[in-house]
Structures are given as C-alpha cells and as structure tokens.
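Contributing new records

If you add data, match the layout below exactly. Sequence lines come first and carry their own label; structure lines follow with theirs. Keep one chain per record. Anything else will be rejected by the validation script.
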Amino acid sequence: MGEVELRSAGDLSDEELAELFTASYEGYLVPFAVDAAAVRFLTDTFDLDRDASRVAVRDGARIGLANLGIRGADAWIGGVGVVPAERRRGLGRTLMEAVHAEARARGVERVWLEVIVENTQAVALYEQLGYAHVRDVEVWSLGNAGDGGEAREVDAAEAHAWVREHRVEREPWQRDDASLAKAADTRGLAVDGAAAVVRVAGGRVSILQLAGEEEPLQELLAGARALGESLVVLNLPAGHPAGAALTALGGSADVRQHEMVLRL
C-alpha cells in the first residue's frame, strides 16, 4: 500500500469533487450526496477555497477530502470525510492538520465547524485538535399542514435590514450575511415584530435569516411555510425563539450539531 499524498482540491473539476465528496460521506449519520451543481453552489455561496482545501490520494485513487472556506480572518470546515476502506487510519486528522496549515498561511485566526452531536468520534478528534465548543445549532423542518399565517411580502433588502437590527446572535456560516449576499431569488417576509429572508426552490422554503420574538415568529413562519411544500431552517442556534415557534407549529429539530472553533 502506497503512501498518502495530499493535493489541492483546486485541481479537481466540480464533477470529480462531487464524486469524492459523496464517497467520503458514505454511511454517514445523515444521508449525504452532492452533484456538480451542488458543489458549485457550495463553492460560490460559502466561499470554499478550493486551492486551500485538500484531497488525499493513495496509489492514484482519491480517498478523502477536507473543504476549507475562507472569509478574511475566519475559516470554516465545509466537510471532511474519508472513503470507508480508508477510515480509522488517522487520515481525518491528517487532512484537518493540512487545512489548518493552509489557513494559517492565509492569515486566518479562527476556524469554525459544525459536527453532529452523535458523531462522538469526530467530536473527540476536534477536541484533540484544539477546537472548543461554542454553542449547539439545530436543523429544523416544518411541513405544510396547518393554517397559513398572514406574513406580508417585502423587499428582501428591507427584511434583511430589520433582521440585522434585531438579531441577538451571530449567524452560522451558511446563513451569514456574506452567504446571504450571494443567494439568488431571495424574498422578504414580515409581520409586526418579526422578519425573515427566505428562498423558495423545488417546493422547499429555506429560511436564510430571521429575527423576532416567539409569537410574531410563529405567525411569520406559518406564512412562510405556505409558500412551498416544506420549510427548513439550517443551524438555528439552540434556544432561539424561532425554535419554540416551530415547535408550536408542529416542526421538529431533526439534527443537532455542536458549533466549534479553533483559534490559530
């Protein structure tokens, strides 16, 4: 068996990276698969630095990857995985250490990630690498059963301005202002005391940002779900009033993750 070589992910096409990404997450706790279009979306919207990201190769075969997004002094692990046959050989640690080195070389001061709470092996690895727990975040879903609310549509920029003024927690990487600025076809929703920026695609309503108190958020989210067949909120901080609003509407927190940070 040959030695492992680490290469830049910048040498891979969208199709090749999608194939490796999917293979590296085979058997993951949450079903996962991406295509070339999804990889391009992740790259563009979440600022993945393909040159700084790393791919592991053994005997000419790609066997693992670590994606690194960079925004100034902050970076984000946009997925790290190893194909099943190569797991439990320390390759995850090797890939993480490699992208940490790339981050340092680019002036990054903090590296962020999210890890599913039940993925205890990964949590232990990140702690060994020096990551500290920041908070828990949850992926929420809500079906379209029930009465619609009376949220009014407003300009997305107007809704975003309201959210920026009233939010009380830092947005996660995927819903940060920098990500929102690159999102296409956004729409604004508002009620008295709450606002949201949403995107509707393929029958799914994605809540990109929102702020407000529980009662107006319940009305707002009831109106938002009427725009599609289902609604999702990615990485909502635990304890956010939107969580109580979603619960009241029959929603569920399907995935809970630890948000962690490494200070370089």
